[in-house]
Amino acid sequence: MCGIVGYIGEDKALPRIINGLKLLEYRGYDSAGLSFVKDNKVFIEKEIGRIKNLEEKINLDENTNMGIGHTRWATHGEVSKVNSHPHRVGKWTIVHNGIVENYVSIKEKLIKEGYSFQTETDSEIVAGLLDYNYKKEKDILKTISKTIGELTGSYALGIICDDDLNSIYATRCGSPLIVAKDKNGYYLASDVPAILDWTNKYVLLDEDEIVKLTKDNYEVYNKDLVKQKKDIYTFEGSRNAAELNGYEHYMLKEIHESKKVVQDTFNYYVEKNSFKKTMPDFKKYKNIHIVGCGSAYYVGYIAKYLIEEYAHIPVYVEVASEYRYKDNFYDKETLVIIISQSGETADSLAALRKAKEDGIDTLAIVNVVGSSIAREALWTLYIKAGPEIAVATTKAFVAQATLLALLAIKLSNKTELLKEFDIDKELDIVLEKDYKRIAKTIYKHDNVFFIGRLVDYVLCLEGSLKLKETSYINSIAFQAGELKHGTISLIDEGTPVIGVCTKESIIGKTISNLKEVKARHAYVLLVTNEDIEDDFYNQKIVIPKVHDIVQPIVTVIPLQLLAYEVAKLRKCDIDKPRNLAKSVTVE
Ligand code: M6R
Q1: 15, 110, 136, 242: which sits with the fewest CB atoms below 10 Å from its CB?
Q2: Does 390 contact ligand 1 (Cβ within 6 A)?
Q3: Active site residue 484
């Protein structure tokens, strides 16, 4: 979603702002803009499309030492230059990430007070409200504090006020924002990668905190304007963790990091085939709710099968955007697990908060250190995936599947299963296969079906999502047994049907369903860990058979790589698919 970068210091600001915005590109955006201060005046530049369009328009060498930049992912109002940020009303210039839910009533109030607005955005009214409140408060910090008290929804704001052109102000609620410092100045950013070219030390702003950055200092206040002491975090990974390192796309690079993320995640929680202290004991819980969005929801479904089969604890899996609005039947014996790569997904964060408000214990399974979900949950277990840049999650899914399998083992006491994680060889085999040949048989189709049963069905859901989001092919996953109850009417001559068959106890049943679609002239692609020789499939991807507890980790990789190759053949923008954002910080 939108990205914010700010810089104030001794160096020229624009190269730093553009650099930071480029490092946040992965978040997804459709326009970019910035404002800077020169000769005591505020200048604004905006362009739709890629950051390079903005870069081409500005003079990077501009004599300015402070500015705020923004990448916009449209929510209110079409993608257009006028709707792009920064927005300026009166003395106030702002960039905004999030959604101001009560913007209509604020806008009406301000219009009555004589304000007029140029854009269709919810963001512009924040600049208007700041200007309006400032006329009464006559103090910048008090004005910001009063203004955020009147906003509902989510926001991270970078702010410049004409009456103090030696400072950048910022605040956040529900959308992330960090502050960093190098030897020549201070930075503001939506996420850590934006500052990694300059420093790996950063401060996380908490909800409703306000920061004032000057070229040689920063001060953080709470909403009552009491100064706060902040912890300094260090980013553990290396800068090149967020670089392509010779790969054509981040998605491909990240899939190829699977072996490392499995090892790193395993080694963080296990030593000499015993759990370390890093893995707490959750045995007191009699039932578990798992909540997430998109792939995080699907990996939660894999965990359901593993925890129920090995630990015999009932697990209910829910989509966060539903869970937050419904009656949930939980009590003191329930553990609510929130899964999120980014740790900032608005719906997942809201689901977490709801469970907490109801007095239920929560566990976050998160990748991004210090993210909101990680900080707010009762327990947090980190996956060790490192920065994930491609919008389509791959290595984080693999790391989540690893950690959740470990959790199932912990809950079941079956520590003898820990030895089953020795799957390097098997991962090498699935990573090195030729998926392009198979992708060629699919990429021209408009509809692709995935079928499987139990855990194989969940892998179908994930494979189908990967295909949809990266290649824009319409694809549906459904439980193989459900075919006859309606969906089979869609099967036609040559329709690609991908059958995932790895769960031994149920393979025979799925094969019968594949035979049914083959009889209706579907093009059947079998993904299996069994030695199946038959005439019901057109192509076959044979993957190594490993223990059930780790089989999903191995099985998902061919589905990810197939989606990648199909997207490549279709010449899609693989790492930044249209309309999508990496971190979905709005509802
Ligand atoms: O950061 P999160 O794990 O909370 O994100 C959840 C989903 O938005 C995410 O998994 C999404 O479905 C991916 N684009 C799928 O590849």
Answers
A1: 136
A2: no
A3: no
